[in-house]
Amino acid sequence: MKSPLLKLTASFVIFFLLFSCNDSEQIAPSPVKGSLLAIKRGDPVPKGYELFKLSEDKPLDWKEIAPISSPMCQGDSAVTIDGKIYFAGGGNKAGPSKLLESYDPTTNKWTTLDSMIEARSVSTGTVLNNKFYMLGGHNNTKGRLIQNEVYDPLTNKWSKIADLPFDTRSASSIAVNGKIYFIGGVTGGVQTNNTLEYDPNNDTWTSKAGMPTKRDALRLVFFENRIWALGGWYAGGPSNHVESYDPVSNTWRGEKRLKTAPVYPSAWVSNGRIFVGGGGDHNVPAGPSYYDTVQAYDPETKDWEIVGKLPLKIERADTVVLDEKVYIIGGVNSEGFSDKVFTADISPPLDLYYYK
Fold it and tell me: Whole-model pTM?
């Protein structure tokens, strides 16, 4: 059988079909035998078209943008709401912070908003119902925190919510199916495998099945209908553990481990893969070392591969995805605390399909 490429002639028109999540419906042009469509990977393929060529994934090309107001490391408290990035708390030489600021990508500017009730570092934040929840952490007055609070962008105000069952720092959180899951961290001075579920309807916390490996300084992402817990620190030192949780069945399972063992890494999901970048190793006699490696999990091979680098070696850098761009915010490394913010385009590659 001849390759479809041999069937193409100069008279055939190459059409480009770019689907968008914001468009309610797009119709492919009238197909011509042998014509090509360029389709964003993951978007639906029109009837009658078959794969012609897979495009190569784009490398991460980082661009520095407006910095946050002061050098700060937090690691898990940047979120997106209505097209803006919100970044709260964190720590630097002055100690834990109450600061909340938002970034507008259309103007490349940060704006200071209402301060949190509690100063908190190594805390965790997530979004549910367009409200920003900040949970746990540590400050110089109360030590490990049991207190939680929620921010409403419509009123620019913080308010208290139910305390955690245990004082906890260096956990990670994520919102799934109308609930918030708060996992791992340090409680009572020891690492924990706690999995807590918060119900905003009745302002209560419920204990769920424990994570298989006790860890803090980990990161969570939601992928293939499961919450994935990535890296961190456990009793044996830096962790390359990857474990996933099914909120429906309340069960955990082990997954393929990371290539490196990053403490306080960055993590995000795009184009059908999980990405883990940076982090550090605190188990080094000479002091912490830091990574810029980015590795990705491929669900087809069920393995991790090194796919690029962050713009600098960094840990406790916050990460968000907004409008097909990933943002890396603040952090700390051998040079000290960072106020730098970088972004890279992660829009899906355009794969070619031909009409039979």
Answer: 0.89
